[in-house]
Amino acid sequence: MKNTKVKKQSALKPLEKGQLWQLKDTHLEIVDLGKRLTHYRLLPGLKQKGVPVRLGGIEEVQKYLKANKAKLIKN
Predict the structure, then answer these.
(1) Rounded to whole angstroms, how far apart are CA atoms 13 and 66?
(2) Beta bridge partners of residue 32, listed in sequence order
């Protein structure tokens, strides 16, 4: 049999309260997490104040992070 390498998909870590994800030109902070929904902020800068909290489905946020190749910088 031929030895073939199988590509692993990069799996994101499960979302947790307080996580900070780095995207291309912005950051996403997980403020709170429920069963199906998450409260998050899209921060243009790390020291930005007064950014409104948004509400979205956990699966939606995970797809968004994966599509934008986000990196977890603070757990």
Answers:
(1) 10
(2) 39
The residues, ordered by sequence, that sit 6+ positions from 21 with a Cβ below 8 Å of its Cβ are 27, 28, 29, 30, 65, 70, 71, 72, 73
**Would you mind telling me the total number of residues written for the chain in this entry?**
75
Q: Could you tell me the domains of the chain?
A: 20-74 (3.30.420)
Q: How many CA atoms lie within 13 A of 40 on its CB side?
A: 22
Could you tell me the two tokens for 29? 């902070």
Q: What's the rounded Cα separation, in Å, for the pair 21 and 19?
A: 7
The tens place of each residue's pLDDT in the chain, 75 residues long, gives: 555 554 444 567 899 999 999 999 999 999 999 999 999 999 998 888 899 999 999 999 999 999 999 999 988
One-letter amino acid of 13: K
